[in-house]
Amino acid sequence: MRHRDIIAIGASAGGIEALQQLIRVFPVRFPASIFVTVHFPESGSSRLPNILSRAGQLPAVHAADGETIVPERIYVAPPDFHMLPGTQGIRLVRGPRENGNRPAVDAMFRSAAVAFGSRVIGVVLSGNLDDGTSGLAAIKRSGGTAVVQDPDDALFPSMPQSAIDHVEVDLIVPARSLGKTLIDLAAAPLRELGSSQAPDDLMEKRYSAADLDMIEHAEQHPGKVSSFGCPDCGGVLWEIQDGDFVRYRCRVGHAWTSEALLGKQTDSFDDALWTAIRALEESASLSRQIAARHQARGAATLASRFEEQAQRAEHRAAVIRDSLLEHRNAPTRSSSEPDKVEREA
Are residues 143 and 273 in the same domain? Predict the structure, then answer.
């Protein structure tokens, strides 16, 4: 009788605390392999294996490319690499970012789903936006089990709430009960194995692995051409309908959910407005210099014309600046609300 012996856990902001809670109860002889992806800055360093090893009884390590998968171990995705578990071991790949992240939760989930089918338990913990939703859907399509941290229990509820909204999750559990829940699921026998042959999931797993054949044969791309460009490379994005969850992927494999794409476009628009302010301020400064030179040689009419041009540029810059700052007021907090600092793991 087979068991659920692959546990894939995805987290972002606020997820370290939940990870420590659930790992604390795992026994030394836990008969499953645990894979953990937490979003880190690509240029940063991660001490997450040390943190998790201290939190529980199982050893936690940064995964190595080509490493054989064994039970009773926690594999952590290192910064700047997607961790792709498979039947031939673990692959670490500097593949295209997903929602601007590498490592990405969805890439790990999708790879586990394709390789191990119903043996997989996918877990979505605290985090912002909707990372993890499409990967958890792939796990469900392959016959796996979907577990989500209760959003009311999460420091940042967006990731678990998105999974609940778009995936038929099996269990919604607070962090303090997650470990016991996973132990029970791993112990329960599987009566039959689910299929792991979802064609679109397999294609997208190949994108995460930077498979050049997928890049060279765009006609195989899952989805339909959209009117949006990829924020990472500028290429056309394909729209992928995953139930009622809409997401995007470009020709070279960069992937975006709707929320992440909107957030990136908002950042780009913000940057463009600051660039416009800089250009207008420089234009006003240059116009004033020209006006001063005309004034010095007695050409009052020309000087007045350039002074007016400088004032128009300054007025336009002020309008844009006021619009930007209007949405950037510092958040307030009551004196009774505690400070909480999310330390880099």
Answer: no
User: Whole-angstrom Cα distance, residue 306 to residue 296?
Assistant: 13
Contact 284, 313 (CB under 8 A): yes
Please report whether residue 220 resides in a domain. Answer: no
CA atoms within 13 A on the CB side of 137: 20
**Half-sphere exposure of 283 toward its Cβ, with a 13 Å CA cutoff?**
16
Question: In sequence order, what are the residues at sequence separation of 6 or more whose Cβ sits closer than 8 angstroms to the Cβ of residue 283?
Answer: 309, 310, 313
On whether residue 160 sits in a domain, the answer given is yes
pTM of full prediction above 0.70: yes
Residues 256-266 pLDDT 10s: 888 888 877 77
Write out the residue range of the structural domain in which residue 284 sits: 260-326
Q: Provide the 10 A C-beta neighbour count for residue 204.
A: 29
Host H or E run for residue 213: helix 212-216
pLDDT of residue 320: 83
Number of domains in the chain: 2
Positive or negative torsion for Cα 139, 228, 80, 218 = positive
Please give the structure tokens belonging to residue 269.
């628009």
Instruction: Name the DSSP letter for residue 194.
Output: P
By annotation, the residues acting in catalysis are 12, 39, 131
- The verdict on 8 and 133 lying in the same domain is yes
Is there a single domain that holds both residue 31 and residue 174?
yes
